[in-house]
Fold Pseudouridine synthase.
Amino acid sequence: MRLDKFLAENGLGSRAQVKQVLKKGLVLVNGRAEKSPKAQIDERTDEIVVSGQKLNYEHFVYYLLNKPQGVISATEDERHQTVLDLLDETARRKAVFPVGRLDIDTHGLLLLTNNGKLAHAMLSPKRHVAKVYHAQIAGMMDEQDAERFAAGIKLKDFSCQPSRLEILEVSQKANSSRVRITISEGKFHQVKRMVQACGKEVTDLQRVSMGPLKLDPELALGAYRRLTSEELESLRIFKVQL
Ligand code: URA
């Protein structure tokens, strides 16, 4: 790959900034100063040192985002802010994309990566990856609803697989409830539609986990961080190269 692309992807700044760093002779390729942004390198075998620091090339990157409401989980959109707009330039340059979708008004855990095979594995209907949501409901959900969830709710266009509804809190006075819902599919508006099928309405939806990944309570809405090495290890269950 081109040396300037490699340096930009490794957080050295924009291509223009990278050019300046190169011009100053601060970049060594296999021990020799390289000043040309166009120089071709092999990122797997060449040793690249910038101002005395060796750079290790990361092909794949993984970010855990606490998606806020009002932002769409797409890579581009003409009208709305997208989850990519929340990332810094280094992350964006890695061409990451969201693994699956959350509605514009849903908040919580979203994994962003440029590892297509991992995304494919995590989203494959055959894998039944569990997604856990906390929902605020207008209306009081009850054990009968939980039984309907467990049996598999029939919607107009498809029958949901058995899922889990746990009632965390019910307020008779406010005619509302707080629930935890676990599904292993990811159909369009699935949670909202399942709740609607029980005659109630989701007023707030937060995803708290997806497979082995959990929402980090330290992450503010709109904030993101790289996966820890433990989190990355936990993704080995998908048996793809990480
Ligand atoms: N189910 C929904 O209804 N919306 C989401 O964003 C995710 C699951």
